Amino acid sequence: MYIYRYDSTFQGLLTLVFDAYSRKAFPDHIMRESDVSLFDGDIRTVVTDNVRAQRVWNGLRKKISPSACRMLYVVWLSELHDVEMLVFRYIRKAFAGERSPELNFGDADVLETSKIYRKVAREAERMRMFVRFQKTADGIFFAPIEPLYNVLPLVVDFFTDRFADQLWVVYDIKRNYGLYYDLHKTTEIVFTQLDFDFSTGRLHDAQAAEDEKRFQNLWKSYFKSIAIKERANPRLHRQLLPKRFWRFLPEKQ
Amino acid sequence: MTDKTLEKLQTLAEAAKYDVSCASSGHTRKNNGAGLGSAQGWGICHSFAEDGRCISLLKIMLTNHCIYDCAYCINRRSNDVRRATFSVSELVDLTIEFYRRNYIEGLFLSSGVVRNPDYTMERMVRVAKDLREVHRYNGYIHLKSIPGASRELVTQAGLYADRLSVNLEIPSEENLKLLAPEKSYRSVFQPMSYIQQGALESAEERRKHRAAPRFAPAGQSTQLIVGATPDTDNRILHLSSELYNRPTMKRVYYSGYIPVNTYDSRLPALATPPLVRENRLYQADWLLRFYAFKVDEIVSDKHPNLDLEIDPKLSYALRHPEIFPIDVNCADYEMILRVPGIGVKSAKLIIAARRYGRLTSSQLSKIGVVMKRARYFITCRELPVFTIQEAKPDMLRKLFLSPATQRSLKMAGQLSLF
Q: The domain spanning residue B242 has which CATH number?
């Protein structure tokens, strides 16, 4: 039984693939850096090597389409349990066959990959939908989020393009990192301390811009007015607007 | 912005809420630079109202004063409701501030008619123009074209807006005459054809010069009120299919009539809005647009109304048992789409996956086919067991009724025993 451990980066996982092929020892289990192991002895720890990772990536691109390559990356971002093994099996199938496996939805791994891909892509879409910026006193538009999967890398381009003329921060409070746009480029940031109300996702009054509260109230009253009472459908409402987002939405306060 | 803004916003959102459309789809535009906003081709919803409808755009009226007296409309002249008017700059600021906070995907602006159609239309165009030119705003704009507005103004509107729309509202001309004597089909179809001409001319121009301005790139849409008049589904769906044959028509919306003016005896007294019928019409609309159905296959003089108890696709399948069962491993895409329980997504997956080998029923259900329905209409790698040929349509119909309907039928049966 072969067990590998990698440093929880995508490059690390690709290096792992390289290692497994060169040793001809394919993993039965892949562990993240932070995972605790019960059997300590025979774990191989992979040292991330960008050159090797790039070689695997280039090889993969010859075997499967660019969109399938991207899909593997997105699926890995899900951080689901054992997703590394799924990605690994997919890559093996890609390298083994004459023909790309990507459309073989009769295959359990291929189908599972595409299902996870859809889930992660949907979560990223929900960020585009439900991120709500609050304007701070120093003019930065700040939005805390708590996505199920690690989707910030998938929405960088969207927010950078759309809000190109304002300073903004989108911060993943679950994974404790965020994106900051300074009117020129977007960079990753980590706050050493987060000073806002976690239970409501709100900025404290002193931090918020003067007119912030007013626009939240305007939006809230718009939200109330636009609903047609005769058609009220609370079940559908909860289904489309899951409760886990409510604390970040001014209209649901 | 003044303190009155809140009150105006409430009044004018209330006035606009019966318009169904809120789509922000149909056009992708990158920001590319230091402006604000972009547009996504698939559209983004930013919230969902408590009636379950998507909130994508700031759907608002410029004013709810109106010189017309249409029987079905909440803003009709003779109604005693609170009236308000936004100034152009007030509405522009509100849109920008909401947009910056990612509350909305853009603006959907309509208006009651004040003084005359052109005066109203001009003010609406000014809002769009200010957004685009003063604020360098690249987000979505949907403008309602006022019936009777001049061609010049519609053309201008098309240069700033992503989508234009004119609401037909009533599915037949004689009923429109009855409910809105000041309007005619001509006054609605004329702006529709202005939009169409504008878009076609711009497409022609763009073939010559790539930088030629685009005209309402997301096309146009319209809305029909369902249940305010005795018009049948046959009439409604034939009308929409005709509209879809026009080059720029992207969507026809159906709005279940909500009795807003109960005192008007020209309108039916409904206890609840016809939501099921509205839902069935949307399903039929989807069959027209994505499932390659012809309108005559869904409704006809023989079946003038859609079956309210089962969906139109199932209803079609039960009326045509002779084409089933379909072999999913060799049938055409269009035929696979006709199977109840198989949607566009799973049909595409089937077409892709069957090149690797014949599909089994367990693979089909993993792909996303609803086997509970589809099993009676298909054959796959296994031998067909019990299809519509053996089961007969009547029995299947009973099987597929919703549990609630089944229960109420049972109740009725029990009652009739006594």
A: 3.20.20.70
Residues 6 or more apart in contact with residue B126 via CB below 8 angstroms: B88
Whether residue B54 lies inside any domain: the answer is: yes
Residues B70 and B140 in one domain: yes
The Cα A143–Cα A71 span in angstroms is: 27
pLDDT over 70 (residue A40): no
- Evaluate whether residue B301 is within a structural domain: no
Counting Cα atoms < 13 Å in the Cβ hemisphere of B399 gives: 14
B279 lies in the same domain as B210: yes
Residue B207 has a pLDDT of 92
A164 and B46 within 8 Å at the Cβ level: the answer is no
Asked whether the beta carbons of residue B359 and residue A106 sit closer than 8 angstroms, the reply is yes
Least CB-CB distance to A230: which of B38, B97, B273? B273
Do B248 and B352 lie in one domain? The reply is no
B347 and B277 belong to one structural domain = no
Mean pLDDT of the A36-58 span: 87
Domain count, chain B: 2
Of B55, B167, B150, B46, the C-alpha closest to B110 is B167
What ipTM does this complex have? 0.92
Classified as helix, coil or strand, A247 is helix
Q: What residue ranges in B77-126 does DSSP mark as E strands? A: 106-110
B140 and B75, same domain (yes or no) = yes
Tell me the C-alpha to C-alpha distance, in Å, between residue A103 and each of A98, B55, B342: 13, 35, 18
Split at pLDDT 50, 70, 90, the class of B404 is confident
Query: Which residue of chain B comes nearest to A109, CA vs CA?
Result: B366
| pLDDT, mean over chain B | 90
Regarding whether B317 and B286 lie in a shared domain, the answer is no
